[in-house]
Amino acid sequence: MSRWYLIAAEVVFIVSLCVAAVVMFRNHSPTANSVQVQVKLPDASSQVYLEKESDGSMVYLIRHGNGSVEHATPAEMSQQLFDAGNSGSALGLSNPLVALWLGIGFFGQVLFTGRMIVQWLASERQGKSVVPPLFWWMSLIGSLMLLAYFFWRRDPIGLLGQAFGSFIYLKNIMWIRNESRQPALVVEEGS
User: Fold this and answer.
1) What pairs with residue 49 in β-bridges?
2) Three-state DSSP string of the chain
3) pLDDT tens-digit profile of 36-87?
4) CB 10 within 8 Å of CB 64
5) Among residues 20, 87, 174, 190, which one has the fewest Cβ atoms lying within 10 Å of its Cβ?
6) Closest C-alpha to 143, from 13, 46, 38, 54
7) What is the pLDDT of residue 128?
8) Which residues partner with 60 through β-bridges?
């Protein structure tokens, strides 16, 4: 019985994540006469569309993360892209929000990678393969941070890669905590 509720919870979690991803990643074209254009803007939540006007001219529609839509001529769009590429900021750190999310993603990746170093060092100390509790904690926290980062980046591959493991890490932490709460069995010698 105890295993089924975890499997059901993981299925509900994965289905919820998939539904949220489908809603997030579907094309939200601001007008019926526009097509989405793959352009990387400093604000990763912005989406760019190209629309053909009734006079045959083209205009870019930039849907920002807050829902507002900005119109830009090809010359204005070119200038925005040039300014963004020429801003001199490392890693695309165009604003504090982007820096925060990159920090979350970077720290999550450091935790997720560092867990293997923790496991290797623990195994070296004991002379056999062991998995310390810190490994599972680093796995869970790193995975959740990466999951949040990939959700912000709208990266379905990263979401899929991190979504399944979180329940495994959590279940291992639960087993370790239950083990530590159980009283140790005392074996009497000589009786």
Assistant:
1) 36, 61
2) CHHHHHHHHHHHHHHHHHHHHHHHHCCCCCCCCEEEECCCCCCCCCEEEEEECCCCCEEEEEECCCCCEEEECHHHHHHHHHHHHCCCCHHHCCCHHHHHHHHHHHHHHHHHHHHHHHHHHHHHHHCCCCCCHHHHHHHHHHHHHHHHHHHHHCCHHHHHHHHCHHHHHHHHHHHHHHHHHCCCCCCCCCC
3) 677 777 666 777 888 888 888 888 888 877 778 888 888 888 887 777 666 5
4) no
5) 190
6) 13
7) 95
8) 50, 72
Identify whether the C-beta of residue 88 lies closer than 8 Å to the C-beta of residue 68. no
| High-pLDDT (> 90) share of the chain, % | 26
C-beta separation of 72 from 59 below 8 A: yes
Q: Which two tokens stand for residue 27?
A: 């094309």
pLDDT tens per residue, range 161-191: 888 888 889 889 988 988 887 765 555 565 5
Residue recorded with tokens 């680093």: 138
Q: What is the CA radius of gyration of the chain?
A: 24
Q: Is the pLDDT of residue 116 over 90?
A: yes
| Cα dihedral across residues 83, 87, 91, 92: positive or negative | negative
Write down the residue that tokens 């005392």 correspond to: 186
Compute the distance between CA of residue 1 and CA of residue 57 in angstroms, rounded to an integer: 64
